[in-house]
């Protein structure tokens, strides 16, 4: 569990502000993922990165942006264009970048827009 | 694209009884089916997975069955215990090597184990 961390645990944002969520892993995993979890909606994929300096949109990428400049880091920026950003955000990583491998999740960040 | 339906959304069973959660998927190319357990306030963790080359897999009290023809797979928990109370997510993922291939999760089942 300690191999992948997210910060902060709770985050409050005013409408119209961008905010960046941190995700770090020391598991030497190639692939990293961002999910959004809403009550009754399961886990929805926002962005994923299969290798450093490369990333792809998931199913709900609008209003979000990411970067993957280092293997161990995959920050997510929630922009003011995201219409309903209040949610629980989970980061994950896996050894293999093909979605057929165990994903190890971070503890999550709960974002609240005031 | 892939669509995963999970049922039921909530399930209550008496301690010691069995629990079954079912998922269906739409993309016949899907061939990896993991199940994740998320306890209250904690992160999801993989509990079991199955690939399309087998029909059943067991790990102590947990088993998963896969019917590729019908495109459904199920999680079976026997002799349920209080610590089994959690939200369970199924997922499906293809292995075609296409850049657009992704994993799709079901909406989750909240399992309550009644004393």
Give an overview of the whole structure.
The complex is a heterodimer of chains A (about 110) and B (about 120). Chain A is mainly β and about 110 residues long. In chain A, about 0% of the residues lie in helices and about 50% in strands. In chain A, strands 2, 4, 5, 6, 9, 10 and 11 form a seven-stranded mixed β-sheet that branches. The model of chain A has no long low-confidence stretch (mean pLDDT about 95). Chain B is mainly β. Chain B contains no helices and eleven strands. In chain B, the strands form two sheets. In chain B, strands 2, 4, 5, 9, 10 and 11 form a six-stranded mixed β-sheet that branches. In chain B, strands 1-3-8-7-6 form a five-stranded antiparallel β-sheet, with no helix packed on it. In chain B, strand 6 (about 55-60) and strand 7 (about 60-65) form a beta hairpin. The radius of gyration of chain B is 14 Å and the shape is globular. The interface between A and B is medium-sized, with 22 and 29 residues.
Order of helices and strands of chain A: EEEEEEEEEEE
Percentage of β-strand residues of chain A: over 45%
- Decide which structural class fits the backbone of chain A: mainly beta
- Average per-residue pLDDT of chain A, rounded, comes to 93
Strand content of chain B: over 45%
Q: State the low-pLDDT regions of chain B, or none.
A: none
Q: Helix segment count of chain B?
A: 0
Total beta strand runs of chain B? 11
User: Number of helical segments of chain A?
Assistant: 0
* Most extensive chain interface and residues per partner: A-B, 22 and 29 residues
Order of helices and strands of chain B: EEEEEEEEEEE
Computed Rg of chain B: 14 Å
C-alpha geometry of chain A? globular
